[in-house]
């Protein structure tokens, strides 16, 4: 919880600091409600959750004395209620041989780093992992994944820059099937500038992987960078058009005061949330827990 709390410190400072300024022994009136509404919107919490909180407060506490602490408790409860149904650990259970996880997201979102961290965590649980460097568009991406593979001690299957990502994904899954590897993590290109191409590429990867196992990919995870704030919503929309996204991982929550955007995402899309990144180390990729997240965000 300590890492989570310090990771979310920027967002919680904004939220709690703001609440503290608004609610200094005040009666709850229209002005304070409006100030609170502005604060929550500015903290990227999103309109639906903000509206729920404001409406509830107006109903229950209008003209009563409320403290910043009361408000933080209400906010925390509302965030937890919104996000608790979306808690979903990325936990391959061994029913698929291999469990295939497609990793998507725009360049720079933290996809490769997240793959490395997941590989390390799965390995620590005793599972065997294979990484597939299917972002063949960028030489740096291939190299970065290779470095992670060496660091974690898991094999990486790669080809030269410009190679066909789908053919490589096929090879990776075939190799994992032949060698009894538990999990395949597929890195993909994140060129959202050319949506048509991205859609074709992801679609083709999915099609060829299905030739080997028609239940694959078992997860299609979208990696989002929290520092982009509300842009995470349009990125999610765009990726939902290009691939059948089944869950989210949000990175870099430590680098921003815009961590509230995860609430807005949860509200809008209702996609399962697997994990959150609150720093650079492996331990900083944490399984998502709504109650701990809500508490840290409003601490
Ligand atoms: P990709 O282009 O999506 O593969 O992104 P990378 O995995 O290369 O990540 C981009 C940068 O974000 C790297 O410098 C990572 O170390 C950094 N990064 C990834 N996740 C986190 C996180 O949770 N917190 C912080 N502070 N940095 C992160």
Automatic annotation (TrEMBL):
Catalytic reaction(s) noted: GTP + H2O = GDP + phosphate + H(+)
GO molecular function: GTP binding; GTPase activity; signal recognition particle binding
Keywords carried by this UniProt record: Cell inner membrane, Cell membrane, Cytoplasm, GTP-binding, Hydrolase, Membrane, Nucleotide-binding, Receptor
Domain annotation Signal recognition particle SRP54 helical bundle: ranges: 4-83
EC number of this enzyme: 3.6.5.4
GO CC terms of this entry: cytoplasm; plasma membrane
Binding locations of GTP: 105-112, 187-191, 251-254
Biological process, per Gene Ontology: SRP-dependent cotranslational protein targeting to membrane
Keyword Disulfide bond: no
Family to which this protein belongs: Belongs to the GTP-binding SRP family. FtsY subfamily.
Quaternary structure annotation from Swiss-Prot or TrEMBL: Part of the signal recognition particle protein translocation system, which is composed of SRP and FtsY. SRP is a ribonucleoprotein composed of Ffh and a 4.5S RNA molecule.
The protein's name in its UniProt record: Signal recognition particle receptor FtsY
Taxonomic classification: Bacteria, Pseudomonadati, Pseudomonadota, Alphaproteobacteria, Parvularculales
């Amino acid at each position: 919880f300590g890492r989570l709390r310090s990771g979310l410190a920027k967002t919680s400072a904004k939220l709690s600091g703001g609440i503290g300024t608004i609610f200094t022994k005040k009666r709850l009136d229209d002005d304070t409600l409006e100030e609170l509404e502005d604060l929550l919107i500015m903290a990227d919490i999103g309109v639906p959750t903000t509206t729920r909180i404001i409406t509830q407060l107006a109903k229950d506490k209008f003209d009563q004395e409320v403290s910043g602490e009361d408000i933080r408790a209400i906010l925390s409860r509302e965030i937890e209620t919104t996000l608790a149904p979306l808690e979903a650990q990325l936990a391959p259970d061994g029913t698929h041989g291999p469990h295939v996880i497609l990793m998507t997201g725009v360049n720079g979102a933290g996809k490769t780093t997240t793959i490395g961290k997941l590989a390390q965590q799965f390995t620590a649980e005793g599972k065997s992992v294979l990484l597939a460097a299917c972002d063949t568009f960028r030489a740096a991406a291939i190299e970065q994944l290779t470095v992670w593979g060496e660091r974690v001690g898991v094999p990486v299957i790669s080809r030269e820059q410009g190679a066909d990502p789908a053919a490589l994904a096929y090879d990776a899954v075939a190799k994992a099937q032949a060698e009894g590897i538990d999990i395949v993590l597929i890195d993909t290109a994140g060129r959202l500038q050319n949506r048509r191409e991205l859609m074709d590429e992801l679609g083709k990867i999915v099609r060829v992987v299905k030739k080997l196992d028609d239940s694959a990919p078992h997860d299609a995870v979208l990696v989002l960078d929290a520092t982009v704030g509300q842009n995470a919503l349009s990125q999610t929309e765009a990726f939902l058009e290009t691939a059948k996204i089944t869950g989210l991982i949000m990175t870099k929550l430590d680098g921003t005061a815009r961590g509230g955007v995860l609430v807005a995402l949860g509200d809008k899309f209702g996609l399962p949330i697997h994990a959150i990144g609150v720093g650079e180390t492996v331990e900083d990729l944490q399984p998502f827990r709504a109650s701990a997240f809500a508490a840290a965000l409003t601490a």
